[in-house]
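User: Hi! I'm working on a homework problem where we have to compare a predicted structure to a textbook description. Could you give me the structure for the chain below?
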Amino acid sequence: MRTATRYWLGTAAILVFAVLFIIPFVFVLVTAMKTQQEAGFLEFSWPTEIVLLDNLRDALEARNYILIIAFINSTILTVASVAIMVILAAMVGFVLQRRRTRWTGFVNFLVLSGLIIPPAVVPTIWVLQGLGLFRTMPGLILAEAAYGLSFSILLFRAFIATVPRELDEAAIIDGAGPLRLFFRVIFPLLRPVAVTVIVVQSVVVFNDFTHPLYFLPGEQNATVQLTLYNFQSQYETQYNLLFTNILLITIPPLVMYLFFNRQIVAGMTAGAIKG
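Assistant: Happy to help. Predicted structure tokens:
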């Protein structure tokens, strides 16, 4: 490709990135600095009076510190569901890649179906009610883990194809059983793709709005995304506090992505090329 073409394509990509991501984030930040009257105009202008600290305090103290409770709930939800995804997906990917039976094709079909078929809310609620897990944090954790499992299995399976079978044979000759072979020999080698799954799925689960709304209703069960309702009512919306809330719940996923973006690309690229 000619140098001039590559230059213009790169410039266009940067402009698209700025329009889609940076400009909305700056608008959120500027609106969070404004008073309630100025924020109500929803204009992209610099505030005449910066009251960001006051807005932060009001957003945190709203409804008896519900935002702090929501951060705790979202942290528990994210850590538990992503841990289940990583361990289960790595084990399933290992078995699918190493052991070929007449059921392998059917299991692969089920895994791909999880990516293609959209989640069904009503049947999921019916199953959770039957198990006594509806409106409970364990029920929502299992639902989130199930929704992210297919994508994680495909990543792990592609990466495991790069691990030589000779390692398995050597460990078995040394007396390692199936669990010891997986957790002591194979799992430590999956660190790049494990980091990718952890970061990507953590952002997905932490930012999820619909599943906590359907499967974990209740004021004390709120997650961070559901706190966006705090500052909206039928007659008035406090845009300054609403955008301050958006700013607060945006920071954790953004920081995680900035720290681990190289590992995300490395893990997905390794699995894609070698798988």
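For your comparison, note the following. The chain has a mean pLDDT of 87. DSSP finds eleven helices and no strands in the chain. Good luck with the assignment!
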